[in-house]
Amino acid sequence: MSKIKVVHYINQFFANIGGEEKADYPAEKRPGEVVGPGMAFNAAFGDEAEIIGTIVCGDTYFNENVDKATADILEMVKEMQPDLFIAGPAFNAGRYGVACGTIASAVQEKLGIPSLTGMYVENPGVDMYASKVYMVSTKNSAAGMRDAVKKMAPLALKLAKGEAIGASCEEGYIPNGVRVNFFEEERGSKRAVDMLLKKLAGKAYTTEYPMPAFDRVAPNPAVKDLSKAKIALVTSGGIVPKGNPDHIESSSASKFGEYDITGVTDLTADTYETAHGGYDPVYANADADRVLPVDVMRDLEKEGVIGELHNKYYATVGNGTAVASAKAYAAEIAKRLIADGVDAVILTST
Amino acid sequence: MPDMVFGCRPFIVMEEVVRLEDYIIVTNNPLVRDREESRHAVEYHETGIREILEIIRNKVHVGQRLLTHPLSGSVKPGETPYKSVLMTRGKEPVDLMSVELIQSAIEACGKFSFKSEEYDERAMRDFRIIDWTLISSALESADSF
Amino acid sequence: MKLEMGYIHISDIEFSSESKIENGKLYVSTDALKALVLEDEKLKDVSFDIARPGESVRITPVKDVIEPRVKVEGKGGVFPGIISKVDTVGSGKTYALKGMAVVTAGKIVGFQEGVIDMTGPGADYTPFSKLINLVMVCEPVDEIEPHEYEKAVRIAGFKAAAYIGELAKSLTPDETKVYETETIKEGMAKYPDLPRVAYVHMLQSQGLLHDTYVYGVDAKQILPTMLNPTECMDGAIVSGNCVSACDKNPTYVHQNNPVVHDLLEEHGKTINFVCHIVTNENVYLADKQRSSDWTAKLCKMLDLDGVIVSQEGFGNPDTDLIMNCKKIEAEGIKTVIITDEYAGRDGKSQSLADADAAADAVVTAGNANQVVVLPKLDKVIGTLDYITKIAGASENTLREDGSLEVEIQVITGATNEVGFTTLSAR
Fold it and tell me: Is ipTM strictly over 0.90?
């Protein structure tokens, strides 16, 4: 049986090119070379697999040229025709982690080649890619290299051979949202008693099923006097000036827009539209006030019910947009609203 | 409640009548309709499991409150074609617990696959009976005071 | 309260003209047993069979699994309030026949009842494949309602188990274990420094065919109450539950409740096991509210430090589980919950129908939607008529080679939520 062919991706640091000052090193293919941590992998693979080439790329280069770097590296991997692709491990290096997650999931998805990476559980790459590609949980620095390789090599071989992958705690990968059964050594009741003893003693324990995280926000106290308040409109319903000048995506939005509505009393089919996919846009396009009620707010302003309508509104698209991105947009929008002296916000969605 | 109707009854009894009449059974199970409609207010819809859950959800959205759990019975939605729930008849501010319960029931629907053509009449009868026993259990609680 | 449990190991079962236990072997007169079972006019016929570990046998549809026990000394008899008179059990001396069980089978609500495989991959998932099973397939009279049939089969199983248990009354146990717990005040004095722990045991109580009985009372009707940990060993809690094979608690599981056993193991060493609290899982939301309020209140009144909460079933009980957990944690009492998951065949769906951040210590018995292929076995006790209609089966269930492709939720006890087995998930 011939050996499983592996291509390994590492950054400039692990390729001994240099640190931060060399992080703009572009993607480079080194066929036939085994570099840095690749040696440890080769040793761990024994007779079963071998690294047939290494791809090196600077972290800054990758992250500032994601599309090009990804496309270039995919091409390099394709030329070498491996059976397996390994990226990293990246430990706690944030941009390296994101690069490993990006490229490992791209190789798996676009080229259909089983892929594996590894990083520290708090690496930002985990949140972004743990559900897309197997990711071994490593220590937070390169001092954990030996341990990481020990866990990654057997899992990588299993992936390459198409064997069934066990539960995260058995295989050492970071939980990826897919629940996998396995037999524990102790029965459930005993595990419950042990967990309770730890919890009672204030010791660390690991829940077997982390509850889905609900990010509940407690509402602020009511606005005391609306007639003096400056109110802003913010929407995830994708209402944008006609033509979508900022090109906000119809799903998985990568940005939000800020639009001036000084003097605008009514959103019409000629002036505004929705950028939002995933729902029938006919009614929103015919009258965008249905999603972003500028007309009614102007009425309330005129009647003195509210002090004034803020002259800018903010819009993004909620459709499939990552919670982390939404949070980041909200933080930025809130900062601007506070700077402009806004007292309250009406959030609308679709 | 106009005196015309309950004029001859003492006040305390009237209170009870009001309370007992206060709920409806929403169901797509013909057995529940047949067995309960002489005793209780029954709103029957001849429709599928997902559709009946959506009808219930729409009622929750306009302020009717669930009195029973929509995932009653360990027969999972999608594994049974029938579902009956008790709800308040009157409208109140939207009850968030009801919203969560019905929403998670509809989501749970997606996890299981029900293929009615796979079931013979005897199995369908069992499904109707199981659903009826569940709602009867709730009616016992609802009418116990 | 002090209970001495005498264990008599059963090495084999054989049908015979006379019922007796000799040298660890159980001889059963099917005539005698049949006469006993058919005392119930709702039952038309009963047939008996024996299934041993490793045999190529599939038992289905399984209703209940019961361990034969007999009360040798002390108050009451086995299954009090059901086939013995109501009397508080859990003290004195009780013998149990280990290594065997009475399994009742019948087409009550065929699509829900489970499968026990005695060999192959299915056997790995059910704890009952490790027992020598005396199986009774009960046939009802015509024109009977399912809940009447269920009751008849339920009682028939208890009667048979009690009949067999009785055969051990004068034997000397192979092994003896003493379980002793104190009253509230004694326990405080004896273990002043140990954390005070209770077990909150949620009983299936959603209505007919989904019920559990405590001293003969339908658990739907109870308010949460306290038991001595030893009471359920004498059959104070029995199953009337016909649904959700993988996570229902057959009577055998109540008799051998593993949380009770594992807490008793730690009692006096690392914890003070104060009491066993039983509560219910009614479908009526006001009942849920009341029961979880009461459970939390009892925990508070008992000055507990920690609690284990177990569940039975899916969906509706998830809400009770989370309500109990939330309210008990809100009293400042540390809580661990035991549940199972319905994460879909791909393992990607939300596992529970309810969730809360307070549930930060969870033991899971695995994903009940996981698919398993059960090979064709030589013998079927019961009937395969329902196998494609069982919960967790699909149109592809019965494959050409006679094997079955099913979700493990069809397997009796596969994802037991009192932690009876080792299956888990991550």
Answer: yes
pTM for this one?
0.83
Q: Between the CA of residue A81 and those of A51, A67, A77, A154, what are the distances in Å? A: 12, 21, 6, 21
Q: Which CATH class is domain A4-171?
A: alpha beta
Peptide bond before residue C61 is cis, with ω within 30 degrees of 0:
yes
* pLDDT given for residue A249 in this prediction: 81
Q: At what angle do helices A37-45 and A145-161 cross, to 10 degrees?
A: 50
> What is the Cα gyration radius of chain A?
26
Per the CB < 8 Å rule, is B74 touching C247?
yes
- Give the residue extent of every domain in chain C: 2-410
> Could you give the residue range(s) of every CATH 3.40.50.2300 domain in chain A?
4-171
* Ramachandran category for residue A83: left, alpha or beta (phi over 0 → left; psi -120 to 50 → alpha): alpha
In A184-336 the beta strands, taken as DSSP E runs, fall at 230-235, 239-241, 257-260, 272-274, 308-309, 312-315
Can you give the pLDDT of all 145 residues of chain B as single tens digits?
A: 333 333 333 334 443 334 444 899 999 999 999 999 999 999 999 999 889 999 999 999 999 999 999 988 766 666 788 999 999 988 888 898 899 899 888 888 776 665 556 677 877 888 898 899 999 999 988 887 6
The neighbours of chain B, by the rule of 3 or more Cβ pairs under 8 Å, are C
Q: Who among C352, C355, C419 is closest to A189 (CB)? A: C419
Q: Do A and B make contact, counting contact as 3+ CB pairs within 8 angstroms?
A: no
Say whether the C–A interface has 3 or more Cβ pairs within 8 Å: yes
CA–CA dist B105, A347 (Å, integer): 27
Among C263, C352, C367, the residue with its CB nearest the CB of A181 is: C367
Residues on chain B touching C395 (C-beta within 8 angstroms): 115, 118
Q: Is A181 on the interface with C (CB under 8 A)?
A: yes
**Which positions in chain A touch C364 (Cβ < 8 Å)?**
188, 208-209
Catalytically active residues of C, by annotation: 242
Structure-token pair, residue A260: 């001036």
Provide the shortest C-alpha distance from residue B112 to chain C (in Å).
7
